Structure formats: structure tokens, C-alpha cells
What we know:
Layout: H1 12-31, E1 38-41, E2 46-49, H2 52-66, E3 79-81, H3 82-89, H4 93-101, E4 108-110, E5 113-117, H5 118-145
Antiparallel strand pairs: 1-2, 3-5, 4-5
Helix pairs in contact: 1-2, 3-4
Amino acid sequence: MDYLENISKPSKKEQQLAMESYSALAEVLEKLQKDDPEIEIEETKEKIKVPLNALKLLAKILKVTSQGKPISIIPIATEMTTQAAADLLSCSRPHLVGLLEEGKIAFTKIGKHRRVKFEDVMEYKKSMKVEQQKLLIKIMNADQESGLYDT
């Protein structure tokens, strides 16, 4: 997946700047009334109208960057190859194709090639996480009932 190849961890300087910027932006966002606020680039005195949702996304990016975590932004409607989707799910491409053929993830076919939407892959990933949590709780309850946690 080429959009995940060039991601790097932010430097300490970038983390510090992101933390300061996030605090200031979060404070300003609470006060905003319009859906299309105008921001000013101090260095050039240029004013730019930005959708409020874009500023909220920027705040999330700054918060995550301040924590030292790498960031990647992917348009949600992006169609992916089966290999890219398999990489995202950390599974093999043949396994992913099996999931597609079983109807667990929606896909379209262009000629002989299957394409999946990023949002559909992420929805499947989320549902698998929920299922994993349910199974872990079930296992823990069975262990507790059998006395494995007794001292």
C-alpha cells in the first residue's frame, strides 16, 4: 500500500509544536460559530476560508502527532486493490478474496480485477474487533467459571 510506505514518526520538535498548536486550535474551535471560518497565515497575512470539519480534522491530526504517533490520511471513498485491502487487514490476499466471495466485504469487479472500498474494509475490520472482544469475554468467563482465577 503506497500510502502507508512513507509514514514516519514525528520528531520531538514536531510533537511539541503539535501539542502547542492543538491546545490553541481546540480552544478556538470551541468558540467558533460559523461552518466556514477564515484563518490567517501569519507569515503572509493571507486569509483562507476553511470548512469547520477540516479544522476539526486538523485538530485531531495535531493531537495524535503530539502523542508521537504517525498519521496517514486516506479518502474514505477510495477503492483499493485486493492486495492493498489484505495489507490493511494484515491477512493474505487469497484469504481476503475468500471473504469477498463469501459476501463478508462488498466489492466491485472491473474486468477480472476486484476492487473494494476503504470504508467497507474498515467496517469489516471494526466488526471483527467487536467479535474478538465478545469471544475474549466468553473465554474469560469460562475460565472464571472453571476456577482458573481462584488462588
